[in-house]
Specification:
The chain is mostly helical and 236 residues long. The protein contains nine helices and five strands; from the N terminus they run ααβββββααααααα. A hairpin with an 8-residue loop joins strand 1 and strand 2. Helix 1 packs across helix 2, helix 6 packs antiparallel against helix 9 and helix 7 runs antiparallel to helix 9. The two termini are 28 Å apart. The relative contact order is 0.11.
Length: 236
């Protein structure tokens, strides 16, 4: 099943009608937005990397502005979330500038709409600011984990190599030494084992730090759909 098919199947009940449906699936598939649902009975939200958020079924795709919200301003703001009119600050600012240039009287005639755009821009810049702070915390955490990883000593393998070399030489020179020099061979074998035990312990320490890095990645990723395809797109 392709990524697009997976998105279409999972969110079929909530996706907007065509052609907006296909645009949303493509955008999510490329990692530019993610679909988040707080509870099974709640409408999922399309969360844009550029700060905007919209109820999934209300998302519309246009020609000039890629995504906008189908509802009127007074229907977009609810107690549990804020749905922005446009997917990013640029689309919001473009609309404000259009009003200033083409419909300045609308500021007096429909002040609530203009105010909603201002509030949208404030909401999105605030959301991206908080996201930047999350990345800063991630950087601090990765710095701590880097130090922890660097402080794990590398187990010296030389004693194991020396022990194995001596065992090999003894057995080649005199196979009977397996009986006549059993104590020395046992001593050398335990020398190798001691090195291996130390290596296993150090590897467990390395793995613990690596898992902490992975958990830090999952925390910063959250519900976002980060894939290899996203490397070809802009990222928040």
């Amino acid at each position: 099943m392709s990524k697009a098919e997976e998105i279409a199947q999972r969110w079929a009940k909530w996706l907007p009608p065509s052609p907006h449906r296909e645009a949303v699936i493509d955008f999510v598939g490329r990692g530019r937005a993610s679909i988040v649902q707080s509870a099974p009975d709640q409408p999922p939200l399309l969360m844009f990397e550029d700060g905007g958020s919209m109820e999934l079924s209300k998302v519309r795709c246009g020609e000039k502005e890629p995504f906008y919200h189908a509802d009127r301003p007074e229907e977009r703001v609810r107690a549990d979330y804020r749905a922005t009119q446009y997917s990013d600050v640029c689309g919001t600012i473009d609309e404000l500038k259009r009003i200033f240039a083409e419909e300045p009287e609308r500021v007096r005639r429909k002040p609530d709409y203009v105010q909603s755009l201002i509030d949208d821009a404030r909401h999105m810049t605030g959301r991206m600011y908080r996201r930047q702070r999350e990345y800063n915390k991630l950087a601090q955490r990765l710095g701590e984990l880097h130090r922890q990883m660097a402080e794990v000593p590398v187990q010296d393998r030389a004693p194991a190599d020396e022990g194995l070399d001596e065992i090999e030489q003894m057995l080649r020179a005199n196979p009977a030494s397996a009986e006549t020099d059993k104590d020395r061979l046992d001593e050398l074998a335990e020398q190798v084992r001691a090195v291996a035990n130390g290596q296993e312990g150090r590897l467990r320490e390395h793995k613990a730090v690596a898992l902490a890095v992975y958990r830090a990645y999952l925390d910063i990723k959250g519900a976002r759909d980060w894939t290899d395809e996203e490397s070809e797109t802009e990222e928040e």
